[in-house]
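thought: fold this chain, then report.
action: predict
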Amino acid sequence: MSPPAPDPGPATTSAGSPLPLALRVTNRLTRPLGRKLIRLEDHELVVRAMKRTALDDLGDDRISEPLGVLSRALDEEAHLHTFGRATARAQLVGLLSTRLRVADLIRRVPEITATPVVAPIIVIGMPRTGTTLLQRLIAQDPGLRSLPYWEAREPLPRKVDAARQDAPTADRIKRAVGSVKLLDRVAPEMKSMHELDPLGADEESWLLGVDLATMLFEATWHVPSFAEWYDSADLTRGYQWLRTVLQVLQWYRPGERWILRSPQHLEQLGPLLSVFPDATVVQTHRDPVRVVESFASMISYGRHIASDSVDPVTIRKYWSWRIGVMLRRSMEQRPPGDLRFIDVQFTDLMADPCATVGRIYEAADRELSDETLGLMRRWLAANLPGGHGAHGSRVSDQGLDDATVRRGFSDYTEHFGVAIERP
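observation:
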C-alpha cells in the first residue's frame, strides 16, 4: 500500500486542540519525563497485562509481530503527549488482558467454542453512512444479540471467576460510563460527531483488537508503519479470534443471532465470509465526498486527544485515498450476484429507516413482528440524528472542488448508483 504524497505526518502546531487548558499545561510540563514514565515497549505492555490478570498464556505467540510494530509506531511515529501515552498504554494493556482472559476461559470451558455463531447480520459500509443508526435500530429487536459499548471494551469480568455464567456486569458498565464522561470532558465536540452510548450497540473493532486485527489504531493515532502491516496482513486469524470472543459472550448472554457492524469489513470480505459463511451482509452507501469531509474532520479532532501535532489537511488527503482503497477492495472481493449481500443507500435509510429494516429482514429470512417494529419506531423517535452531516473543513479548503475529488470515486458511485449529495 502506497499512501499519497505527502504522507499524513504530524504538524508542528497544537492549534485546535480540544483538551482543557489544565491538561494541555500538564502535557507540556511533563513532556520531558512522559516517555520515561509511560513506557510503550511491547514487552512492558505484556508484563502489565499479565500482572493485571495473573495469567501468562496469550493463546499463541503470533500476536508478537503486530504488537511490536504497533508499540514502536506509538513510540516513534505518533508524537503522543503524556495524556496520549497514558491512554494508548491503557487501551493496549486492556486488549492484552482480554486476550489472556479469553484464552484462559477457553482452556477451562472448551465447550464454549462448540457453539456456533449462527447467521449474523453484519452491517458494513464507509464511516458516516448511517451504519451506527442502522445497527442500533436493528438492535432493538429483543431476539437479536448486540454488542453494547461496555461489553466491547470489557468482554470478560475482572474480579470474579470468569467461568461463572452469571458473572456481574455492573462494574464494567460503570467503567464504560466513566470513560464516556471523560471523553466528553477532554473532547466535548466528539459527541456531535459520533456519540458513544455505554449501553448502546457498538462496533466489534475492540474485539478484533484482541488480535490487533483492527483499523481502529490507524484511525486513532498516526501510526503509518502499523497501517502498512495491517494492510498487507492476512487477518483471517483475527476474525477467528472475533468469532471466539463472540462465542464467549453468547455463552454469558445467549441470543438467537448477532447484529454486528464495522467499516473495516469492507476490505476484509474474504476473512469475514470464511469465518461467518452464513452471514447476511448489509452494505451502506453514501456520496464518498461527504463521507471524507465528515470522517476526516472527526479523525483530526480526535487525534488531538492523544497528540499535539495534528495536520488536518494531510489527514483529509490521506483518508480520501484510504477510503478509496477500501471501496475498490469491496468491489473486488464481493462475489458477484451473492444473495448474502443487501445494499442500502444512505438517502433511503434516512428517508424511511423502518422500511430499510424490512428489506434487511426479508433478505435475512427473519420475521419483523409488529411488536419489534413498534420498539424500533419508539427508539427512532428518541434517537433519530440529523443525518450525520459533515464536520469542519470542506474539500474546497484544500483548493479543490467536489468534482475533482469525486472523480477518484467514480467507479464506486457508478457501480452502486450512489446519489451525489450537494453541500
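thought: worth noting. The first helix runs from residue 21 to 37.
final: C-alpha cells above.
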